């Protein structure tokens, strides 16, 4: 049996034509019409570093003005609300990597509507996952999304450029300052990136400290422009 057929069968048996989120009839094997329509592109003027809504005419929120950012811009592709919250947590914590297909399709469709032009970039990478966590989960969720996006826009996907050197603690239980300390020098970039324009993919943007540290290392190696693309901002 082909892997896709297998996954579909598995999916049909596990979730028999009911919405993943509210359990009414689905329109696409995953969500019902109502839940699907709740997945929206964030509207209005957004901070270029944290994707928070800000007054029109401004480029960044006050908090971000006070911080140094090593990525040039962030694009959050959906609003962090249901059913995205449930889908992303199932994708991450319930060993359901096939949800990445659906989530990457949403990202691609919203990216096309955002006006952002990925073809000007040299390659796509993803925020690396702690090796122990990756082993336990069996996959890096950001890398699954990154590969699909790179593939669609016909840009190389590189997952061997940046890796974690320090076994950092789980970020979820730490406050913002502790998160920053925790990620310092946690990543290493193993090749020169002089003049390269890079898209870095993550699933959910929270404080951005991991992302920023990755981008610091990428810029140290000569990266020119870095745009972070995430499914949503928490
Ligand atoms: Zn539903
Ligand atoms: Zn901001």
Tell me the layout of helices and strands.
Blueprint: H1 3-14, H2 33-37, H3 62-65, E1 73-79, H4 84-93, H5 99-114, E2 123-126, H6 131-137, H7 141-153, E3 162-164, H8 176-183, E4 187-189, E5 197-205, H9 209-220, E6 225-233
Parallel strand pairs: 1-6, 2-5, 5-6
Antiparallel strand pairs: 3-4
The protein binds zinc ion (2 copies).
Description:
- This protein is an alpha/beta fold and 234 residues long.
- The chain folds into 2 domains: 1-37, no CATH class; 40-233, Rossmann fold, CATH 3.40.50.
- Helices cover 37% and strands 15% of the residues.
- It contains 9 helices and 6 strands.
- It has helices spanning 3-14, 33-37, 62-65, 84-93, 99-114, 131-137, 141-153, 176-183, 209-220, and strands at 73-79, 123-126, 162-164, 187-189, 197-205, 225-233.
- The strands form 2 sheets. Strands 1-6-5-2 form a 4-stranded parallel β-sheet. A two-stranded antiparallel sheet has the order 3-4.
- α9 links the parallel β5 (197-205) and β6 (225-233).
- α5 crosses α7 (141-153).
- The longest helix is centred in the middle third of the chain and has 16 residues, at 99-114.
- It is globular and about 50 Å long.
- The mean pLDDT is 88.
- The chain binds zinc ion (2 copies).
- One zinc ion is lined by residues 19, 21-22, 24, 31-32, 34-35.
């Amino acid at each position: 049996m082909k892997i896709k057929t297998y996954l579909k069968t598995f999916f049909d048996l596990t979730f028999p034509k009911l919405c993943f989120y509210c359990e009414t009839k689905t329109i696409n094997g995953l969500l019902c019409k109502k839940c699907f329509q709740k997945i929206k592109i964030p509207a209005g003027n957004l901070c270029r570093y944290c994707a928070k809504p800000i007054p029109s005419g401004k480029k960044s929120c006050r908090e971000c003005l006070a911080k140094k950012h090593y990525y040039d811009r962030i694009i959050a592709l959906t609003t962090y609300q249901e059913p995205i919250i449930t889908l992303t947590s199932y994708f991450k914590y319930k060993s359901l990597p096939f949800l990445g297909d659906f989530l990457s399709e949403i990202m691609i469709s919203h990216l096309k509507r955002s006006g952002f032009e990925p073809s000007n970039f040299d390659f796509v990478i993803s925020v690396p996952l702690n090796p122990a966590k990756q082993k336990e989960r069996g996959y890096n969720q950001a890398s699954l999304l990154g590969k699909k996006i790179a593939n669609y826009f016909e840009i190389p996907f590189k997952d061997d450029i940046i890796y974690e050197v320090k076994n950092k603690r789980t970020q979820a239980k730490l406050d913002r300052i502790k998160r920053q300390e925790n990620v310092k020098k946690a990543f290493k970039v193993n090749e020169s990136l002089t003049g390269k324009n890079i898209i870095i993919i993550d699933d959910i943007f929270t404080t951005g400290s991991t992302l920023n540290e990755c981008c610091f290392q990428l810029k140290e190696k000569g990266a020119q422009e870095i745009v972070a693309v995430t499914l949503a901002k928490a």
